[in-house]
Design brief:
Elements (H helix, E strand, L loop, with lengths): L7 H17 L2 E5 L18 H4 L5 H6 L1 H20 L4 H11 L3 E6 L5 H4 L7 E3 L2 E8 L5 E3 L21 E5 L8 H13 L2 E5 L10 H8 L3 E6 L11 E4 L2 H13 L2 H7 L4
Parallel strand pairs: 1-2, 1-7, 2-3, 7-8, 8-9
Antiparallel strand pairs: 4-5, 4-6
Helix pairs in contact: 1-9, 5-9, 7-8, 9-10
Bound molecules: zinc ion.
Zinc ion (ZN) binds next to loops.
Amino acid sequence: MSREALSHEQRDQVKKIADALYQRGPGMAFTGAGISTESGIPDYRGPNGLWSRQNPTYFRDFLADPAVRLRYWERRRARYPVLAAAEPNEGHRALARLQRAGFLDVIVTQNVDGLHQKAGSPPDRVIELHGTAHLIRCLSCEARWPAESFDPGPPGTIPSCPWCGGLVKEATVAFGEPVPRKLLEQALALAEATPVMLVVGTSLAVVPAAHVPRRAARSGAFVAIINDEPTPLDREAHIVVRGQAGVTLAYLAALLTGDQLEAEQQLPIR
Ligand SMILES: [Zn+2]
């Protein structure tokens, strides 16, 4: 993906977000697939996403049908190495930098790629609402293994739990599988209390995750949205930046944690 320059209008909008974080922060961030596409991770739900081209796996089918489990594990064997090798981009790094500088507290993410933590965000300050692809879990005994130490066996086989024989899958929330209640309640409580909500790279189409930024809006937070397409929350947002996550967040972080000159010099002026 090529890096776009920010227009004068976009820069003015980002400056207003910086002002809000400076005056009212620390805020929180809510992120989706759009922040990771620049790291080469496909947007599973976007128009070019893998799920648009291949049938998604529904949780009830995974439980009921060995053929679905076989297909799931064939895909996982093919996809996971791409995800494991992905590197965080300037957007992830900018959010980590804002956390270190005290302008952002928690990041709530719908992504399962672990790139916020890989970029330096403290693991206890990242809430992964949809779980993580870097862990495998047993659906029966809840045993968990790091993905790199779990051997799924050769292609054409379906792995099972070595302790209890139960079904295993990656520790992500599949279609039709509930978001862990405690995690969701924690994210909603933080959203209710946050003075600034920064929404990045998500079209807010997936519930209940999308309730998190909405809760912040309803509770009076300053809401800023950085996304390349419209979202249902745009009308309630104070600032909407239509653009790439990476360059926009890099500019925001430079404004707040560098000096103005560094921020201006970083970017070509369009
Ligand atoms: Zn088990």
